[in-house]
Design goal:
heterotrimer; A mainly alpha; B mainly alpha; C alpha/beta; A: globular; C: alpha/beta; six-stranded mixed beta sheet
Chain lengths: 322, 298, 237
């Protein structure tokens, strides 16, 4: 009953957002799609870190795997768009399962280092294999919107619709799994691994499952990001992993709803940066580095002063007042 | 045969650089229990400062000294401003435990953006102080140049200095004591806070040497040491993360191993190979070649 | 005021109160044995006095100086040495290095050499093993090393936490004998935390019996040894 209500809530909000997109400026629609994708990417980290207590600095790599496999299946096998998403999701999940098998044996700093190595190393493969087409990247498209949607239904709106429906589907799945037996198991693991083990939880298997699902979620986010942008090493490098971690930390890592907040900030930063850069005289050095500067400063400040995220801090503050 | 010797020579030269980066990571890990991802940022910043000095004065020795001092200073600043504040604010929660690691990642981003603003993101040529043409013996030229010799000698010198400090001096004794058992060290009267900062200073200097020695082979960008960070991390893990000798052996092992893979299999495999080496190191010998009982699994 | 004076000391351990308002005085040159079962707050008391743990309220004075809130590395410089529980040596370092650790900060290097010689005369076994790693030593030797290291700092007050822990009875007798010898020779004030109540009281001047964070009895060691009620409840026989 409870999950049925949740299903209606998801469908209802999806419909509202779809309708809203018809009324909004083009650029904002595109940004809406970006926000939805980032929110999905961030929730892949929330699932992993916030629930199962493992850390990944390399979820950008899983997004890359999703994007590249989705693009390749479209280019070479001409799969329909939705199936390329499925392929992207599952291949990233497979990579996550393999990595998770090793990760389950590692503690924080080692896992952080290993996943960071993945985030730095994986994109370099694009230049090593001709099929991946180097820096130019791969062409991966949604196709034009169906003509019966009418003239005014632009490509950006079409992006937004595809993205939103897929993100909402996946979010619904994630939301359900976190409140399921698995979600509770992860939380128990995070809180006290020894006690969890003693109470019969298969620590290893449960951790690998979390890694697999997290990677799959990231894989879908990656496919979507590739579809609305382009599939190439620069877009899926360390910068992306870094953005996801920042977004997750800003969201407070423990709440899926919070991932929206982080996603909005991630999309807002370049906007804000371009305004500031304009005032500073729009030199190339400033414009290209200001977003990174703002993001890293924000990340450091958050970790320093509200390590469990601003949202968590406010919640605690309220709880203390009551 | 010739090919194997060439691979070995390049491997040794690269391996020494990886060792230095691994040393930097190990020094910080031992003193603060943090994997400092910002080490790549600190090192590239020092390298840019050396680059600035060398382009203005055309004096590599001066640039080297300036860069290393800058690296040491940056290390101290990061520990005092960032890490101390961080440990003061540490609280419970899923992120809190990871806070230092994430902060170091943030710092890496911050340093790179600042460098980009000051020097630009484009490639800067770092002119080598000595020839990069390989030595010639009779009719064969080996891919080992005066620059490679300088790398090996420079890195070896740093390692010898470190060994002397750690094994022979009171400062070294305090550093080791604080690394192994900070509480007992404090009870013995050692100012562990200051010792911790010293660890970061040494690490900053080691990272700077690595950056300044590797860069003349190539151009520098704000990102050009990212891969060195990964190699250094893998080398440190191979060596056991706690051990200084382990870092050196790990670096050389990785350098020579990768060099052989590059020579005989192809450049496309350098990162997958690194990752496989990391995975093997973690699975086969989780405590590292020289690690004692370091518990790395959760 | 000289000696060690603790007043109304309260120490919290997260949500639990480990020490709940205790007061006592140890005169200079006295050996005070702090007795009690697990969880009585004995170790916490020593950790607070040496600066490893923060007190919630109350005060502690040593030689007229307030010591709470000071860092352990500074208290060592004021003559307070803490030999913590579980043979407080650094296993990865050699015996020689462990001893040297106690004297790194001292300006008077001549005296460091002199006191090191004294320690090695006191514990000849350590002298034979100077270049061995501390983790190759036996339990008793480690305890000697820990006490030796503390002595290098030329302390006036030694806080000793369970020196008998995990040692064979014969070795325990030897350690207690050494402690007794030491304090008479060097005029040390000692706070000795022990579960091994009788052995501790036999060399002590005064005894402090703790239970669940409070002091339940104090008195001269002889008084406590001869109090039948205490025997049943706290002294174990």
């Amino acid at each position: 009953m409870h999950s049925l209500r949740r299903l209606f809530l998801f469908i209802f909000s999806t419909l509202i957002l779809l309708a809203l997109s018809l009324k909004i400026e083009e650029l904002r629609v595109y940004q809406g799609a970006q926000i939805a994708i980032y929110a999905l990417g961030i929730s892949s980290i929330v699932l992993l870190t916030g629930y199962s207590g493992q850390v990944s600095l390399g979820n950008g790599a899983f997004m890359a795997i999703g994007a590249y496999t989705a693009a390749l299946t479209q280019i070479h096998w001409h799969l329909p768009l939705f199936f390329t998403f499925v392929v992207g999701t599952f291949s990233a999940a497979l990579a996550g399962a393999i990595l998770g098998g090793g990760a389950a044996r590692l503690s924080g700093p080692y896992l952080a280092g290993a996943t960071l190595a993945l985030a730095v190393g994986l994109p370099t493969l694009a230049n090593q294999f001709t099929i991946l087409n180097g820096e130019t990247g791969l062409d991966y498209t949604s196709g034009t919107p169906p003509t019966w949607f009418g003239e005014s239904f632009t490509l950006y709106k079409w992006f937004f619709w595809i993205v939103l429906v897929n993100v909402m589907l996946m979010m619904f799945f994630v939301r359900n799994i976190t409140s399921s037996r698995y979600g509770r198991t992860w939380k128990a693991l995070r809180g006290n691994p020894v006690a969890a083990q003693l109470s019969g939880i298969q620590v290893g298997g449960s951790k690998v499952l979390a890694f697999t699902i997290s990677a799959g979620v990231a894989g879908l986010a990656g496919s979507l990001l590739g579809m609305i942008g382009f599939v190439g090493p620069t877009g899926f490098g360390l910068g992306l992993s870094f953005a996801l971690v920042t977004g997750a930390v800003l969201s407070g890592v423990t709440s899926l709803a919070g991932s929206m907040l982080g996603a909005v900030v991630l999309v807002a930063i370049p906007e804000l940066a371009s305004v500031i850069a304009h005032r500073l005289g729009d030199t190339e050095r400033v414009t290209s580095n200001l977003p990174g500067l703002i993001m890293s400063t924000l990340l450091i400040l958050t970790v320093l002063f509200t390590p469990n995220g601003p949202a968590e801090q406010i919640r605690k503050h309220k709880a203390r007042k009551q | 045969m010739q090919q194997a010797i060439n691979a070995l020579l390049i491997g040794i030269s690269n391996g020494f650089i990886y060792s230095l980066m691994a040393l930097a990571l190990v020094l910080v890990w031992r003193s603060t229990r943090v994997i400092n991802f910002a080490q790549a940022g600190q090192a590239i910043l020092s390298t840019y400062i050396a680059y600035e000095i060398v382009t203005r004065t055309d004096n590599f020795i001066l640039a080297f000294i300036g860069g290393v001092l800058a690296g040491a200073l940056v290390g101290a600043v990061v520990e005092i401003l960032l890490m101390r504040t961080l440990f003061k604010h540490v609280s419970d929660g899923p992120v809190a435990a990871l806070a230092p690691v994430i902060a170091s990642l943030g710092l890496l981003g911050l340093i790179r953006s600042v460098i980009g603003m000051v020097w630009g993101n484009d490639q800067k040529p770092f002119f080598p102080p000595v020839s990069t043409n390989g030595f010639t013996f009779g009719s064969t030229t080996v891919p080992f140049s005066r620059m490679n010799l300088l790398i090996v000698l420079g890195a070896a010198t740093v390692m010898i200095i470190f060994t002397l400090i750690f094994q022979k001096s009171n400062l070294g004794l305090a550093l080791r004591a604080a690394a192994f058992q900070p509480e007992i060290a404090r009870l013995a009267g050692i100012r562990v806070g200051a010792i911790r900062t010293t660890g970061w200073i040494f690490a900053g200097a080691a990272g700077a040497v690595a950056g300044i020695l590797i860069s003349p082979n190539d151009a520098i960008t704000p990102y050009s040491l990212d891969s060195l960070l990964i190699f250094g991390f893998v080398a440190a893990v191979i060596g056991g993360l706690e051990s200084l000798i382990g870092a050196v052996v790990g670096g050389l092992t990785l350098g020579i191993g990768l060099s052989f893979i590059l020579t005989y299999i192809g450049t496309s495999l350098i990162f997958p190979a690194t990752f496989v080496v990391l995975a093997l190191a973690l699975i086969i010998r989780p405590q590292g070649l020289f690690g004692s009982k370091a518990a790395r699994n959760a | 005021m000289s000696g060690l004076t603790v007043k109304d000391l309260v120490v919290d351990h997260g949500a639990i109160t480990a020490i709940n308002g205790i007061s006592f005085t140890v005169e200079p040159g006295q050996l005070a044995a702090v007795i009690g079962s697990n969880g009585a707050g004995k170790t916490t008391l020593l950790r607070t006095l040496s600066g490893l743990k923060h007190a919630s309220s109350g005060s502690a004075q040593w030689s007229g100086e307030y010591i709470l809130g000071k860092k352990p590395e500074n208290l060592v410089r004021h003559g307070i040495s803490h030999v913590s529980e579980g043979k407080s040596v650094i296993p990865e370092l050699t015996v020689k290095e462990n001893l040297a650790l106690g004297g790194i900060w001292r300006k008077d290097k001549k005296d460091v050499v002199a006191v090191t010689k004294e320690v090695l005369e006191l514990f000849p076994r350590l002298g034979e093993r100077l270049s061995q790693r501390a983790d190759t030593l036996s339990g008793g030797e480690r305890q000697m090393l820990a006490i030796g290291r503390a002595l290098i700092s030329r302390p006036k007050l030694i806080l000793l936490d369970e020196p008998s822990l995990g040692l064979a009875p014969l070795v325990i007798e030897q350690i207690f004998h050494t402690i007794d010898q030491l304090r008479h020779k060097l005029g040390l004030t000692i706070v000795l935390v022990e579960q091994n109540a009788m052995s501790a009281l036999r060399i002590a001047d005064i005894g402090i019996i703790m239970n669940l964070g409070k002091i339940v009895a104090t008195g001269t060691a002889t008084e406590l040894i001869n109090d039948p009620a205490l025997h049943a409840a706290y002294l174990g026989y």
